[in-house]
Amino acid sequence: MRRHIAGGNDFTYRLKGHRFGTPRRRGKYLWLPLEDSGQSVLAHLGMSGQLLVQPNDAVDEKHLRIRVRFADELGTELRFVDQRTFGGLSLHDNTPDGLPDVISHIARDPLDPLFDDEAFHEALRRKRTTIKRALLDQSLISGVGNIYADEALWRSRVHYERPTAGFTRPRTAELLGHVRDVMNAALDVGGTSFDSLYVNVNGESGYFDRSLDAYGREGLPCGRCATPMLRRPWMNRSSYFCPKCQRVPRVVS
DNA sequence: CCTAGAACCTGCGAGC
DNA sequence: TGCTCGCAGGTTCTAG
User: Fold this and answer.
1) Using one digit for the tens of pLDDT, what is the confidence trace for A184-230?
2) Is any atom of nucleic acid chain C found less than 7 Å from the CB of residue A147?
3) How would residue A251 be classed by pLDDT, with cut points 50, 70 and 90?
4) How big is the CA angle at A198 (ends A159 and A188), to the nearest 5 degrees?
5) How big is the CA angle at A31 (ends A98 and A119), to the nearest 5 degrees?
6) Prediction pTM value
7) Nucleotides of chain C touched by protein CB (<7 A)
8) Is the pLDDT of residue A253 over 50?
9) Separation between Cα atoms, residue A16 and residue A198, nearest integer Å
10) Is the CB of A133 under 7 A from strand B?
11) Which residues fall within 8 angstroms of residue A2, CB to CB, at 6 or more apart?
12) Where are the domains of chain A?
């Protein structure tokens, strides 16, 4: 309820008796529109959140935070489970295009048919930042996190601190191609699940961790040139890269 | 206006 | 055994 400012009781009161429409998603946010209300229940899983469909009589998870019961005869409920509480559910008004108003700044993801490659490239040229920061900036391109950023940069042979202002149109196009390839490959096998925290609504893990070329591979040989991969602290997290394939950009002052 | 870094949390494994 | 430290898939806020 962190993002539902009015709190849990208010959330419960406002939700009761409504019916969910078809779930939608943008980037890492997803929402359940309420029929006949112009509002939506917005969800973000943060680092450790899960949305689970469970039988009503299933034992409570240790970090069960929110339970949504239904009036139908299916005998299942929707549970939000989250260890670190960076994620949450909240209720918001929709904008005219049907998005919860608080996520209007989130860009489309690169698999969205309406994602604008040219606008993304122009944004890179305009920014005074580095490429990995840009890939993680959900107002420029959504859905890409620390894992898929490192994977796409490795495939592109681009160092994570390369300035975006110097990106040529072909280089942006190549990078976007690799971002899409990585995301499609991960989706095909259910995503990346290092542990049981990362599961779908049925509690099932994904298998893309077996296909990672960069993320988490510190000290292991690069899949292209066999040079040991490096890990560098970056933005309170980590960046993994091949020091030979992904050269540090020369500092120009 | 823009960008970099801190803050928000809990849990786990490594090292001492 | 038990303590501290570093680390974990994300986003938002604030200082400069």
Assistant:
1) 999 999 999 988 889 999 999 999 999 999 999 999 999 999 999 99
2) yes
3) low
4) 70
5) 60
6) 0.96
7) 7-12
8) no
9) 29
10) yes
11) A85, A88, A90
12) 8-103, 117-241
A85 CB inside 7 Å of strand B: yes
User: Is any atom of strand C within 7 angstroms of residue A194's beta carbon?
Assistant: yes
Query: Within 13 Å, how many C-alpha atoms sit on residue A203's CB side?
Result: 7
Q: Decide: A104 and A73 in contact? Cβ < 8 Å.
A: no
The secondary structure of residue A194, as a DSSP letter, is S
Q: Which tens digit of pLDDT belongs to each residue from A14-66?
A: 999 999 999 999 999 999 999 989 999 999 999 999 999 999 999 999 999 99
Whether the CB of A237 is less than 7 Å away from nucleic strand B comes out as no
Phi, psi of A120 (to 5 degrees): -65, -45
Indicate if the alpha-carbon torsion angle A18, A19, A21, A26 is positive or negative.
positive
A8-103 folds as: N-terminal domain of MutM-like DNA repair proteins (3.20.190)
In one-letter notation, the amino acid at residue A177 is G
- A193 closest-nt by C1' vs CA: C9
Per-residue tokens: A183: 């995301």
Q: How many CB atoms lie within 10 A of CB A78?
A: 19
- Three-state DSSP at A234 gives strand
Residue A167's nearest CA partner among A224, A128, A222 is: A128
Q: Which of the following CATH numbers is that of domain A117-241: 3.40.190.10, 1.20.140.150, 1.10.8.50, 3.90.660.10?
A: 1.10.8.50
| Residue in the block written with tokens 């049981």 | A196
